[in-house]
Amino acid sequence: MSSQPAPESGRLPLPARMLTSQVVAVLPDEPVASMMAPVEVMLQEGIQVFSLPAGDVERLTTLHTIFGARGSFGVHGVIDPDGIDALIATGIEFALPVGPTPQVLAALRAAGVPAAPDALTPTEVRAVRAAGADAVQVVPADIGSATYGPALAELAPGVPCLPRGGVGSYALRKWISSGAPAACLDEILVGDACTDSALPALRERCRSVLAVIADERA
Questions:
Q1: How many CA atoms lie within 13 A of 52 on its CB side?
Q2: Which residue in 17, 14, 22, 4 sits closest to 214, CA to CA?
Q3: Does 9 map to a domain?
Q4: Which residues contact 58 (CB under 8 A, 6 or more apart)?
Q5: What CATH number is given to the structural domain containing 59?
Q6: Are 180 and 161 in contact (CB under 8 A)?
Q7: Is residue 60 part of a domain?
Q8: Is residue 187 part of a domain?
Q9: Tens digit of each residue's pLDDT (9 = 90 or more) over 94-126
Q10: Is the entire prediction scored with pTM above 0.70?
Q11: Would 1 be classed as within a structural domain?
């Protein structure tokens, strides 16, 4: 896989851990207590970057306080403009906002937090990037075929795209090989670990995902 180009002037770089691991674990909207063991297991297995729903600042603060020295934390979903300052104060390192307002994007940029707003089609991806996005969150990535990553790389050249939503092993391989800086993995990686404590299965999924990444780097 080719190395990632330096960020364009005026754009913020994605977190180093994200670029190194190329995996973002997208956590579900569950109580913080149910996330503690799964996050610990994922860290042990080499998953270092986590995204939480943006609506619960206390949950984010708790996880960042406990695990922040070993992992990077960001947020996804709709971000309330009135709550953006509180989110930034938790120490988030990136944001995957859905339909962000100019106010939200401006606050993130002023705080040095890279943002990847949502888009899907090549036209939308190019437009979001042209509007100044640091990267683009392609969601739901599974709405097309598993080869959408290579196709999008041709139709929106030079745009750092982060696929999110239903990215299985084959699609992950295609996205990474076509230049995606990282993939945002939800149920495919996290599964039901936060609701039924199926931690051995979570470990296996972590190893499977990281094996795909390692294979693409070889």
A1: 28
A2: 22
A3: no
A4: 32
A5: 3.20.20.70
A6: yes
A7: yes
A8: yes
A9: 999 999 999 999 999 999 999 999 999 999 999
A10: yes
A11: no
